[in-house]
Design a protein that fits this description.
heterodimer; A: alpha/beta; nine-stranded mixed sheet; two-stranded antiparallel sheet; 6 helices; B: alpha/beta; seven-stranded parallel sheet; five-stranded parallel sheet
Amino acid sequence: MNQIVCIAYVPDTETRVRIAPGGVSIDETDVKWIVSPYDEYALEGALQAKEAKGGTVTALTFGPARADTGLRECLARGADDAIRIASEGVGEVDSLGVARLLAGVIRTVPHDVVWMGNKGVGTDAQLLVPMVAELLDLPHVNLVTKLEWKDGGIRAHREIEGAQEIVEMPLPGVIGATKGLNEPRYASLKGIMAAKKKAIAVKTPADAGVDPATISGEGAHVRWTKLELPPARGAVKLIPADDPAKAAAELIRLLRDEAKVL
Amino acid sequence: MSNVLVFIEQRDGKIRKSSLEALSLGYSLSRKINGTPGAVIAGAGISALASELGAYGAAKVFVADRPELLLFSSEGYTAALDAAAAAFSPSIVLASATAMGLDVAARFAARRGVGALSDVMALDVENGRLVGSRPVYSGKARVTVTPAPSAAIQVATPRPNVFPASKAEVPGAGEVVSLDLPALKIRAKVVKVEAAEAGEIDVAEADKIVSGGRGIKGPESWPVLRALCQELGAALGASRAAVDAGWIGHEHQVGQTGKVVSPSLYIACGVSGAIQHLAGMGSSKVIVAINKDPEAPIFKVATYGIVGDLFQIVPAMTEAARKLKA
């Protein structure tokens, strides 16, 4: 079974966001980059399937050269190959643009399963899994928290609002992983050493059959016109807690009469 | 054309509140562009639901009522939206940013070669173009987004529980239009739905959330919080620390690797307020922090705070809320 795992290399979740001059992007100074946590569940899902069923796992990303570090991490954990679609000189790309690039390269690599996290932390758009599936004319199941392999397909649990859906999907297909699916492994020292020797295949948007002018700048499908920090919140009103019962009653009163949320 | 088409989600023959919010939003946008609001709904045996949508402004309700659409499939339900769009020629398409709405809106947008404004918390039209605002970096920043001027169809997914669901000033005719779908190609499909425990409200859809962190000390403490939830009609949330400790399922997690929420009231009990958690709930209207540690970062974002023992204070709040109702 051949599997492709698409990853995003994103600012660490600990990052304190600052806005860069220009007001449409974050200041990347001192930002530490990580493989998006949701994509780690996807990678782990692929590695477990490979262990059970054999085949290969290819890690794929769209990003600048620093994203090679994220791909090496995937190799160290057990991916066989890695491909980076170089973003240098491409400009800001929205979800559909990224989906077109990923789909373009995925078409050139044999695949039974395409994996992704259900969202990239950062842009948080949650659009990529269905978009890539649609462009590849594949079925998909998103928000997967549990997975069984069946003959020629999967049976997955998917987390929706207040319920779980059980979904059956034949392969090839796209799986969007979320927290709960598994516990991502750490790379072994042996894996880290082996990953250093592996080559990362660098492709261009043209290799994906995409003209950058159709996905960024004037060709972007969605424009970020202004990025700002959330408005500051007022100072906290502390309620003395000498008498817990009184404090609780006062709090409930404030929530009703002052904040008007009860 | 300046029609606005809204995808309506139903489960077990009931329209989801988040879809009525999207329809109300669609109605108000349509008034601004002198357009007509319409709705599309898919399922089996759901034709009667269409009549509810006129009150929220829908002039036309496109119905895909077929046995194979009884349970959700992204391909089947996207085909319904696609067929309705072909019939109604909307300039704007909305679907709530739920698991189902995102699946359908993203597939539809990719099929039409347009982008989507995902998970917007504000949405308006300026010179005929949508302008939205949405949280990024899990709520640590917000971005103003707009579709390309060339987009033939503008797609957006409004976040649940942010926009009001209100009946339209001028009700729509709610004229039912039966969709004649082509042969459906359905590969991935839902075969079963397992509802959460009775009475559980999902944190992503909740108007009020009571949340517990490491300070609750263990899973045996959830009943203390659940009692307050029940009294307030709130959902039960949890910090990453509580989820990773195995005290409760991930579906309750609020924060960067859980759900990003914006209820009108968020009560954090024994939650210290890691940056990821603050990002995930920082846009709540009113935040209450109850924590022993006066230095806990949660107090920096809180509207009201009590420095004290949650095991004394939370039950007293439950009692006070009960008295208030009496």
